[in-house]
Amino acid sequence: MKNVYITRIAKFLPNEPVENEAMEEKLGVINGKTSKARRIILRNNQIKTRYYAIDKDGNVTHNNAQLAAKAVEALCDETFNKNDIELLSCGTSSPDQILPSHAAMVHGFLKNGNLEVNSPSGACCSGMNALKYGYMAIKSGQVSNAVCTGSERTSSWMKADIFEDEVAHLQEIEEHPILAFNKEFLRWMLSDGAGAMLLESEPKGESPLKIEWMEGYSYAFELDTCMYAGGDKLDDGSLKPWSEYPADVWGKKSLFAMKQDVKLLGENILQKGVASMKLAMEKHNITEDDIDYYLPHISSYYFKENLYNEIERQGLHLPWEKWFLNLQKVGNVGAGSIYLMLEELVHSGKLKKGDKIFLQVPESARFAYSYAYLTVV
C-alpha cells in the first residue's frame, strides 16, 4: 500500500466578509419583520464574519460548483496544473441540483480533460468522505494524485424567498406567522466557501502532511434525523421526503429549506462525538499525548466549552492550547470547514516536522462523525 500525503491546500471565499448586522440585508427579511431569533443565535455561535456568494445588490455571484472549481484552481501553478489531476472527489451538503452530481459539475467548470469523479453525499462529513475516497485511491495504487474538495453555497437555501410561501400559507389559515425556530436556526449559522487539497503518493511541497489514517462512524441506527432539507419531519420522528408531497405543498411547508431539530442536536451531538473519538483513538492506539493540534469542526462557539467539558467527562484531556479554530472569521462552511481550518493552520507558520494533527468532523443530519490523523513530514 502506498503512503498518502496532502501536498497542497487552498481555499476560495467569495466576495467580502459579511458582518452580523449585514446578514439580514443579504439574505432578506421574512414577512417584512426583522428576526427576533437572529441576535440570540449569533450571541451563542459568536461568529463575527462569514462569506456569501451574493453581491451588494443581492445577485448570486457563484454557484457551489464554481466555488469548488475556484478552490481547485488555487491549488495549481506552473509545476502542477489542473490537467495533471487524475481523480476529482468533491463533497458538499448543498449541491446546486439533484443531477448531475456535484463533482461532475465542478469538472465541467475546470474543463481539464478526462478523469474520474466522485461525489459523496451527506452533510459536513461529505467533505471528509471526499478526502477519504482520494486517500484510498492513492493508497491502493489506483492513482498517483487526487484533488479533494469540501464546499457549500447555502446562502441561496437561506434567502427569504425560500420561506415566503410558508409564511403566506400560515397567514391564510390564521396561524401566527412566525417561522419555526428549527427552520430559522440555520439561517444565521451557515456560510459559503470552498477548500481543496491535493493528495499525492510522494511527500512534495514545503510542509506535506502524511495521512496516517481515517475513520468514520454513524449513529443512524439508533438516532432520528436531526438536520434535513428536502423533506419534513413527522411527529413520530420519521422523515417524509419531498417526492411524497404534492408539488403545490413544497413551498407551503418550506420543504427545501435546511432545518435543524435543535433539541435532538443538544442531547446527542457532543456525547456521540466524544464516544466515537475514543473509538478511533483506541483503534489506532493513540492518546491525547499523541495530538499536537486538535481541529474539531463545530457549528457554534456555544459547543466549544461544552465539547471541552464532555471530553473531560469521558476521561480524556485536550488542553485549550492544542485547539485550532477559525469559526469566528469564516463561519460554518459545513463540508468545507475542516478544509478551511487545515488550510489556515498549514499557512500559519506554526507547524513543525513531526507535529500530529487530529481532525474531527461531526454531522448532525443523522449523527455521523469522521476523523483523520496527520503527521507533518
TrEMBL record:
GO terms for biological process: secondary metabolite biosynthetic process. It comes from the Bacteria. Residues 281-359 form the Beta-ketoacyl-[acyl-carrier-protein] synthase III C-terminal domain. Gene3D superfamilies: 3.40.47.10. Residues 119-202 form the Beta-ketoacyl synthase-like N-terminal domain. Keywords: Acyltransferase, Transferase. GO terms for molecular function: acyltransferase activity. PANTHER family: 3-OXOACYL-[ACYL-CARRIER-PROTEIN] SYNTHASE 3 (PTHR34069), BETA-KETOACYL-[ACYL-CARRIER-PROTEIN] SYNTHASE III (PTHR34069:SF2). This is Beta-ketoacyl-[acyl-carrier-protein] synthase III C-terminal domain-containing protein. It comes from Aequorivita soesokkakensis.
